[in-house]
Amino acid sequence: MTPVRVLLADDQALVRAAFAMLVETAPDMVVVGQAATGREAVDLARSERADLVLMDIRMPGLDGIEATRLIAADEDLAGVRVLVLTTYDTDEHIVDALRAGASGFLVKDTRPADLLDAIRVVAAGEALLSPGPTARLIERFLRSPSAPPTAGPECLSERERQVLTLVARGLNNTEIAEALGLSPLTAKTHVSRIMGKLGARDRAQLVVVGYESGLVTPGTMGA
Description:
Blueprint: E1 4-9, H1 13-24, E2 29-35, H2 38-48, E3 52-56, H3 64-73, E4 81-86, H4 93-100, E5 104-107, H5 112-123, H6 131-143, H7 158-168, H8 173-180, H9 184-198, H10 203-212
Pfam families: GerE (PF00196), Response_reg (PF00072)
GO biological process, one term: phosphorelay signal transduction system
Protein name: Two-component system response regulator
């Protein structure tokens, strides 16, 4: 199996060193670079052909959000996934990171084994969200004066709207299939089509779309 090529981006050298030691303990991962700024992260993602960037949000100069946006917008980096790290799960910037193209987020005090599992999940093309914190974050985002007006995803069919609602509530494909009486493969197909129609990079962005469109309201995550 080809190891997952991981790039570490954090402005604190000790934090990068700690994560590097952890990642290198996994036989299916390898650290291909370390960046102290967002600009370095973007450049190294290109030069080292990383599969996944473990990205801190707050960095000098180009921060983690803008670095994520540049990576997500670069066609040459289409296969690169970004997993955002934050000190607090109530950090309002996480929503901005998800909108920029991040495939998920974790708090920095996540257990080592869970962090490694998260890297595997995101590198495989899935999104990784923590439903509780995500619901709180988006609730704050929608209540803020700067929140953009919501717009319904009119391009979706009724079934697709149902699926999007369940995705935004934090359900995986198997749970969506059970809730709607579908096969897991059909549920997965619906999710893929929804992402294509809405131009969403992954499920993380579908969660934001679900809230912004009003299909899901704060407090219904996991309902």
